[in-house]
Amino acid sequence: xxxxxxxxxxxxxxxxxxxxxxxxxxxxxxxxxxxxxxxxxxxxxxxxxxxxxxxxxxxxxxxxxxxxxxxxxxxxxxxxxxxxxxxxxxxxxxxxxxxxxxxxxxxxxxxxxxxxxxxxxxxxxxxxxxxxxxxxxxxxxxxxxxxxxxxxxxxxxxxxxxxxxxxxxxxxxxxxxxxxxxxxxxxxxxxxxxxxxxxxxxxxxxxxxxxxxxxxxxxxxxxxxxxxxxxxxxxxxxxxxxxxxxxxxxxxxxxxxxxxxxxxxxxxxxxxxxxxxxxxxxxxxxxxxxxxxxxxxxxxxxxxxxxxxxxxxxxxxxxxxxxxxxxxxxxxxxxxxxxxxxxxxxxxxxxxxxxxxxxxxxxxxxxxxxxxxxxxxxxxxxxxxxxxxxxxxxxxxxxxxxxxxxxxxxxxxxxxxxxxxxxxxxxxxxxxxxxxxxxxxxxxxxxxxxxxxxxxxxxxxxxxxxxxxxxxxxxxxxx
Length: 479
Ligand SMILES: Nc1ncnc2c1ncn2[C@@H]1O[C@H](COP(=O)(O)OP(=O)(O)OP(=O)(O)O)[C@@H](O)[C@H]1O
Ligand SMILES: [Mg+2]
Hints:
Layout: E1 5-10, H1 22-28, E2 37-41, E3 47-52, E4 76-82, E5 87-91, E6 93-94, E7 99-100, E8 102-106, H2 113-126, E9 130-135, E10 159-161, H3 164-188, E11 202-207, H4 209-213, H5 220-233, E12 239-245, H6 256-265, E13 267-270, H7 275-283, E14 324-327, E15 336-339, H8 353-359, H9 372-375, H10 377-380, H11 385-392, H12 433-443, H13 450-458, H14 467-478
Parallel strand pairs: 8-12, 8-13, 9-10, 9-11, 11-12
Antiparallel strand pairs: 1-3, 2-3, 4-5, 4-15, 6-7, 13-14, 14-15
Helix pairs in contact: 3-5, 3-11, 12-13, 12-14, 13-14
Bound molecules: adenosine-5'-triphosphate and magnesium ion (MG).
Residues 113-114, 141 line the site of magnesium ion.
């Protein structure tokens, strides 16, 4: 009963593709617990490796050392393992092309999305990635992923928000940071992002993204715009996006178009799903052709006929399969993997010290200071709710000469479904500090020193800026 059997299967005719039904295969092999069975098919689909384990090989998946979460030199983090003990890796950065990734983590309720999310967030902190994290479950999804209160403060992510309005403020901030980088990099003559030279990799993560994107959600259209645009443009600017969602149907996620591109080109992880979602992924051709993913049952273990000689099965409680997933872009897309089982075995009161250990102490990486003047108070003061929203989408009358451009919110009520950016229209570019400094220089023929420029810039009615920022901008203009 303790042996592992491995069978190699080949298609009879050249060119044939091996297809199988996981349950039927288990049945034919007289295996009652489908978790004991692992099937891997070759890329061509003409060969398969069938492994039969004595027990569920993914029952215990333990992270030996949080250091294992640090990104490797190929931009991948180690999120868990496969049945055969091999590591399951998630790419957060592609050093060859200098690009950030698009992450999608799907699963039904209780499948382990937020726990998997904490592993990814902790890996990001340890890897020097600045994270803007929106938890639309009011902060309950990953309480240990608490945000900084301001620059330099302790925290596990750079900025956490827990409201729809805060999420919109984050999306806008991420988008503005991206625009700022686009302009700066163009000036430097750079065609691609170079990690930490000088800017960090940034990720915008939305947990419970379905609440933001489902039909009837107050900011659905605007959020869709930002997510699409960050997904499209952010890659080459070191700005990635990740959505964790519980979705029965792609339509619930801001329309299927929003996600189609992300799914096609992104890093996709499927935790336990609903059948309608999976059907859609298959019919839309979003899953690798010809690959069948065995459903992930809610519980592991045999369903019936427990032998009295089988000592492992004396306990009536069947273990859950939370955290079991298919890492669609990983090394073995058709093999189940399981995320590390993190946290204390028994729920703790307050923040779980074992989860906090994953992140490690101290301040997390932050958005580069070069962008602070442009992105403004919502980020710099780490605001949330309507306050954050108003800071990035000011009322038209508060709109200072194009500063914070695109502010177009109608009505001031907290419940108003504001439209910060009409999804169909290009948005005006926010005025940067460079624009303001340039305006001052253009208006003065006589030479000015940095202090005089600072005074004139601060007198133009825009956001108050510091001498250091003006100096940096002057250097940038001179180059
Ligand atoms: N890799 C894992 N190994 C073992 N247990 C896990 C794993 N991942 C999650 N769990 C357990 O499963 C339960 C649900 O996990 P989690 O809250 O992450 O799911 P979720 O998909 O975010 O659920 P919800 O839809 O409620 O937000 C938790 O009690 C957690 O401890
Ligand atoms: Mg959750």
